[in-house]
Amino acid sequence: MSSSSSQIGRPVGAKSEETRRRILASAMRCVAEVGYSRATIREIARLAGITSGSLYHYFPNKAEIVKAAFTEIADVSLPRLAAAADRTPGVLNQILAVLDEGGQLLRDNPHAVAFDRALRVESAEHLHLDQDSDMIYMGLRAVIRRIIEQSHREGTLTADADIDGTTDAIFAIFQGLSDHAATATPEQYRATSRAIALLIRGSLFDPAPGAVTFGR
């Protein structure tokens, strides 16, 4: 989604780009806290540390700010998640690297999940954001599938699991963790993320004598 048409007359330069990023971060925070319908240009501008008049040099209205914020999330998140997997050797470590990078993305954008949820709750169809929102999740799923396919090629994926089922299982864990981030404290999120890492490694539980194996 291009935002060039919403930035006619916008100041140029590094300072201008920094201001634009502050506007988008402020919009995410404002919508996350009060919802789309109650978020105002004045409050977004206040949180960004600029005047409402200055904000209009960057975006013509609230809808365009929100659309640009969604695009920003996708443009930043997906390459970082893919890069985390690409630079890490070993299938298991790749999944954990994506998990870690996802946590860092949430720390860098603490209002992103609540922002997405607020818009879904309000069903703001007129913003036409469904495709952008789904693109983020489908991009994450594609990264996970690529890792699972590599595991299958290398023969490290257990014979009892198939590519689609394993991809969906890992993706569901990641999606659930993302939803958890909307309401969890940072400490709760870190504890949950650590438990998931142990679960993925197969070391969350000590094996019990005589334990029954299910799913066979």
UniProtKB/TrEMBL annotation:
<dbReference type="InterPro" id="IPR009057">
    <property type="entry name" value="Homeodomain-like_sf"/>
</dbReference>
<keyword id="KW-0804">Transcription</keyword>
<dbReference type="InterPro" id="IPR036271">
    <property type="entry name" value="Tet_transcr_reg_TetR-rel_C_sf"/>
</dbReference>
<keyword id="KW-0805">Transcription regulation</keyword>
<protein>
    <submittedName>
        <fullName>TetR/AcrR family transcriptional regulator</fullName>
    </submittedName>
</protein>
<keyword id="KW-0238">DNA-binding</keyword>
<feature type="DNA-binding region" description="H-T-H motif">
    <location>
        <begin position="40"/>
        <end position="59"/>
    </location>
</feature>
<feature type="domain" description="HTH tetR-type">
    <location>
        <begin position="17"/>
        <end position="77"/>
    </location>
</feature>
<dbReference type="InterPro" id="IPR023772">
    <property type="entry name" value="DNA-bd_HTH_TetR-type_CS"/>
</dbReference>
<dbReference type="Pfam" id="PF00440">
    <property type="entry name" value="TetR_N"/>
</dbReference>
<dbReference type="InterPro" id="IPR001647">
    <property type="entry name" value="HTH_TetR"/>
</dbReference>
